[in-house]
Each structure stands twice: as C-alpha cells, then as structure tokens.
C-alpha cells in the first residue's frame, strides 16, 4: 500500500498523542498509526495579540501542549516517548480567533458571527522528537499549520439554538462540529476537511515524508529539471522508503531543512533513469511478527489482566503487577504491547481496558472469548507448532499423533466447553436467524454442548422446544455455564452418544460445528442416523466454516490449516456439505452466511431417502 511506508516510519517508535480530542485520536488511528494518548495539561491561555498571525498562535499552542506532555513523561519515569504530537484547532473570522465556547451564550455569539459567511479554520501541529540521555531530555520540534475555508449557509435563529441545545458545539472550536450535526450548517469547504475536524492528516503525512524520507539526490535533480516540487506526494515516500539511504529520521529534517539529499552512494542505472525500488514490505513485517501479538494477547488473558482492569481500572503498571502477581517490568511491557495492539488504553491515570477488551477478553460476560483464547493458547498453539510436518506429510502426520480428545480428561473437557460456549454465544443469534425456522416446533441440537445455540433458538422462536443432546460427561458440567437456578423454558438436556444412542425425536436437527471433527466415513454414519430419525418435511441445519472461494481467503485460512493439523476431521467446502445432505435424503438445500465466518446449510427431509 502506497501510504503505509509514511505512517510505517512511526510504527516502531513510542508515539504519544498529546491531545484529549477524540477526533484527533480517531483520525490518526484510522490512518494506521499506533500511539498512546496522554492529554496535555497546558492551559490554552497564550496572549493572542502577541502573535503576528492566528496560525502562529495555533502552532505555538500545539507546541506547548506537546512539550508539556514530553517533559511530564520524561520527569515521571525518565523515559520520554520517541515522538509526541500536539495540535490546536482554531476558527478565525474578521481577525478574531474563536476557540471552544465557554457556555451556550458564547456558542451563540460564535455561530452568529459565522452565520452566512466564510471563515478560516487553522490547525497548528507540532511533532516533537525526544531523546533522553543521562537523564537529560533533548527535543527537536517540527511544526506546521493548515488552513481550510468553510462557508456557513444563512441560518435561522431557531436552527442555531436547536443546534446549540444539541450540546454538540461545546467542545469544539468555533462552536461547531463539521463531521456531525454541524455539517448541516456548512455550504461549502475549500481545503482539507480533516483539518477542520481537528487534524490535517494529509499535511502531517507529507511532513513525515520530509522528516523520514528526504528525496534521494537523483530524484532531486530530476525533479528540479522538471520543475516539480521536490516532495509533494506520499508516493515519493514509498519509493524513497525502500532504499537504506535517504530514510530514517534526520536531524536536518527535524530542523526543517528537509530538502537536502543525504550523502551516500547512489546507484545509477543504465539509461540515466532511476529504477523504482520495490515498496517497503511493512505488511510482511507485521505478518512475521503476528505470532508475538497472539501470544501477548493469550498471556494477558491468562494473567487476567483484562479482568483486573475491568473491575478496578484504570491502574498503573505497578498495581496491575501486584494484582496479577507478576514482575513490574514484565507487566509494564506487556501492558504497553496491549496498548499498541488496541486492547488497552493508556492515560495519565494508568492503563484501562478498551471496550473490545472488557467485552470479549475479560473472563465473565455474555460475549466473553476468554475460554476461546485459553483454548488457543493451551491447545491450538501446541498443535500448530507441528504445522511443518502436517504440510510435509499431509494430515496423516496428525493421525500418527495421539489425538487431543476434549472428552479425555475433566480439565481438558471443561477448557474445550468454555471455548465452544464463548464462541457459540457470540454467533448464536446470527445462526438462529440465518433462516426462518418458525415452521418447526421441536429441535434437537446434536452435540449442543452448553446449550448456547439451543437457548438462542428457543428465544428466537417462541413455539420451539429444543433438546440438547450431548455426552453425559459434557451434560454433567452444563450447569456451571449458566446462572445458579437457571431453568430455561422450552429447553432441556439429554445425555447420549449420537453414534450409539437413539436420537431424541425432533422436527429439526442441528449439527453445529460437529461435522468438521469427523472423517468422511463417520460423517456418513452420523448423517444416516439423523436422516433415519428425521421425518419427511423435517429439517437438518448444519453450521460450519466452509472452505469456500467466495469467502475472503483470510477468513477461511484458519479452517484450511485446521484441516491439516487435525487427526480425523477435515474442513469441507459448501459444495461438499450440499452433496452430503443430498446423499442422505435432504432436498431444497439452502445456504446462508452467519456473520463473516460461519455458513449455515439447511436441508428438508424428502419422503424417500434415495439420493
Ligand atoms: C471546527 C471543528 C473543531 N472540532 C474540534 O474542536 C476542538 C478544538 O479544540 P483544541 O483545543 O484544538 O483541542 P481539544 O479538543 O481541546 O483537545 P487538546 O488537543 O487536548 O487540546 C478539537 O477537539 C477538534 O476536534 C471538531 O470536532 N469539529 C469541527 O468542525
């Protein structure tokens, strides 16, 4: 991707956004930048009259915000971040600088001034590079500003007050937010829209190009010859990024003398034209590092970091370390990695969960994937270590290994149940509603484990009675997955083995994430048992992640690999599932997707079992 080399230059640095503005945070994170947020405590009270232009004021305020954060962080742990970014947005009209309104009257005064006219929005930005040596903090400041012209329509008093009463103006320069309701006030915009919202992303990227990838000498010569500005597009950055020479932060760049070509050998080509080296492989490097990210997530889950922070966050690293009984240094690093992975947030008061982490990574809660993560950490991780032999020898390599049977030991079984419970809860609604199942009044979820899908089916279809049929040693533990005294309506559990025992009577049979666990002969055996139990007009619902070309390769990748490392089971394509159902007397086979990872196949039992 063309842009990634620019932002990629900051990926391996500790970057801090010295701003409390949620808009700035969003703009930068959507651009792929990884950073911590440390709002500045600098009071925005510089004497405006002392500045020759409004933007000089915005730049200075941005700089002071960033400097305050850099020196505070340095003082605190004698380790300043590598880069601190500060910004300040102001609105100007008729020589007047408008910042955030103090109250509703103030907002009204501002909006009345802007009404029907064109005004300027300036954002000043400061990028500070910090370097601490022997306890001393050295800082290089790079600063710039961007101007955007915004014209308001003629607006009625009523509309202005309605807008003010919405509360939106209060934390925004000029008393409006162009990205939300305030967009209705705006007739036209000349310049960078994001600059109005709070951060001039385009100019920022160009600045990064200047700082980290000054053009090579031959580019400068060619450019001069063609009289095109030296660095004006991100593409130049991506091109310049691959060579060793010319990349990396340069003091010259930071000081603003960025048009200099760096010294160093340049490789001339044969025709006097410089060949474009290949783009910098940022995505590939991320891929190489991917396993570390998974392991960091697994470890934080195992140590219950997300539980601790859900209950008591935000907390400092030292407090988290105490609570999880781990070293302060190790915990601090793990927490910082979790921040970089977008699982935690770091502010002045300490580390806190993101919503994603609280919802899915803490061990309790309807959407918890904690058990699923633990299963991957303790089981899948080990199994995938053997991927090389599986690839060399095919799935028989896995067959030679004693299969990890989830029902072999109590602990392993419970771990597997927790994984399935979390995952099924997350997708149960999508599965239950993938088809209209209201014509059925009874269903049997074969291998339905803790009843997470059965419960959703009963909830979705008020006439439906659902039986969960699973091994006795599984049913025995079901109550520990539900609140005490749980007595679900129209849902009951029957112990049994679907290969040996009679299947409970039902109009609809469900096989959710079951078939991929079994080799073809066992799948046929199971389907023929289901087919014999199912009355004509009854249904079979199969839920699987199919190997399917329609789905993005990425989403079906784990399934493709699982098939290699699993001893007996295998993943199948949708065509195979259709054909399997057909072979066992199910007609009108339909397919739907439940979310982006699951396929649901529904067939109706024909009156004759002949294919
Ligand atoms: C014109 C306009 C402004 N804003 C917001 O106005 C705040 C300006 O104030 P600031 O002093 O630059 O920033 P802050 O919010 O106080 O944060 P900080 O960086 O900590 O000073 C920033 O939020 C901007 O997004 C919008 O969201 N939309 C708009 O259309």
TrEMBL record:
Residues 387-587 form the O-methyltransferase C-terminal domain. It holds the Pfam family Maf. Residues 285-363 form the O-methyltransferase dimerisation domain. Residues 242-276 are annotated as: Disordered. Keywords: Acetylation, Hydrolase, Methyltransferase, S-adenosyl-L-methionine, Transferase. Its cofactor is a divalent metal cation. It comes from the Eukaryota. PANTHER family: BIFUNCTIONAL DTTP/UTP PYROPHOSPHATASE/METHYLTRANSFERASE PROTEIN-RELATED (PTHR43213), BIFUNCTIONAL DTTP_UTP PYROPHOSPHATASE_METHYLTRANSFERASE PROTEIN-RELATED (PTHR43213:SF5). This is Acetylserotonin O-methyltransferase like.
């Amino acid at each position: 991707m063309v842009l990634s080399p620019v932002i990629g230059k900051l990926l391996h640095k500790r970057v801090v956004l010295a701003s409390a503005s949620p808009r700035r945070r969003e703009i930068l994170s959507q651009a792929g930048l990884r950073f911590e947020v440390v709002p500045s405590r600098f009071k925005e009270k510089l004497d405006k009259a002392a500045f020759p232009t409004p933007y000089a004021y915005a730049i200075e305020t941005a700089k002071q915000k960033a400097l305050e954060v850099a020196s505070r962080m340095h003082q605190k742990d004698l380790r300043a971040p590598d880069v601190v970014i500060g910004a300040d947005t102001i609105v100007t009209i008729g020589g007047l600088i408008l910042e955030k309104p103090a109250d509703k009257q103030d907002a009204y005064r501002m909006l009345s001034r802007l009404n029907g006219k064109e005004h300027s929005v300036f954002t000043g930005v400061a990028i500070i590079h910090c370097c601490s040596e022997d306890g001393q903090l050295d800082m290089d400041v790079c600063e710039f500003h961007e101007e955007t012209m915004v014209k308001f329509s003629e607006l009625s008093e009523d509309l202005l007050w309605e807008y003010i009463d919405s509360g939106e103006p209060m934390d925004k320069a000029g008393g409006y937010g162009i990205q939300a309701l305030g967009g209705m006030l705006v007739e036209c915009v000349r310049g960078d829209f994001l600059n109005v919202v709070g951060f001039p992303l385009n100019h920022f990227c160009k600045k990064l190009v200047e700082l980290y990838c000054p053009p090579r000498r031959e580019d400068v010569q060619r450019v001069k010859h063609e009289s095109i500005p030296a660095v004006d597009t991100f593409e130049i950055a991506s091109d310049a990024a691959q060579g060793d020479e010319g990349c990396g932060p340069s003091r010259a760049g930071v000081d603003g003398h960025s048009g200099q070509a760096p010294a160093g050998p340049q490789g001339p080509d044969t025709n006097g034209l410089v060949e474009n080296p290949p783009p910098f492989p940022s995505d590939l490097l991320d891929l190489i590092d991917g396993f570390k990210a998974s392991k960091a997530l697994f470890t934080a889950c195992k140590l219950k970091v997300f539980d601790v922070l859900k209950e008591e966050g935000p907390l400092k690293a030292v407090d988290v370390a105490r609570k999880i009984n781990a070293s302060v240094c190790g915990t601090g690093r793990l927490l910082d990695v979790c921040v970089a992975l977008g699982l935690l947030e770091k502010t002045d008061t300490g580390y806190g969960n993101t919503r994603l982490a609280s919802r899915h990574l803490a061990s309790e809660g309807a959407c918890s994937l904690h058990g699923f993560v633990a299963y991957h950490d303790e089981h899948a991780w080990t199994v995938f270590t053997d991927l090389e032999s599986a690839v060399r020898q095919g799935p028989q390599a896995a067959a030679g290994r004693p299969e990890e049977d989830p029902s072999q030991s109590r602990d392993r079984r419970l771990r597997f149940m927790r994984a399935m419970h979390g995952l099924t809860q997350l997708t149960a609604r999508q599965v239950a509603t993938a088809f209209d199942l209201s014509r059925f009044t009874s269903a049997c979820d074969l291998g339905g484990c803790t009843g997470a899908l059965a419960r959703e089916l009963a909830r979705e279809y008020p006439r439906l009675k659902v039986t969960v049929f699973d091994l006795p040693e599984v049913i025995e533990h079901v109550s520990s997955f539900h609140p005490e005294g749980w007595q679900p309506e129209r849902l009951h559990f029957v112990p049994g083995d679907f290969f040996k025992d009679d299947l409970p009577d039902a109009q609809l049979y469900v096989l959710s994430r079951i078939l991929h666990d079994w080799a073809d002969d066992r799948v046929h055996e199971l389907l023929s048992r289901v087919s014999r139990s199912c009355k004509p007009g009854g249904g079979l619902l199969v839920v699987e992640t199919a190997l399917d070309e329609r789905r993005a390769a990425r989403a079906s990748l784990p399934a493709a690999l699982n098939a290699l490392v699993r001893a007996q089971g295998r993943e199948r394509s949708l065509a195979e599932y259709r054909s399997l159902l057909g072979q066992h007397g199910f007609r009108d086979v339909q397919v739907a997707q439940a979310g982006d990872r699951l396929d649901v196949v529904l067939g109706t039992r024909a009156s004759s079992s002949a294919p």
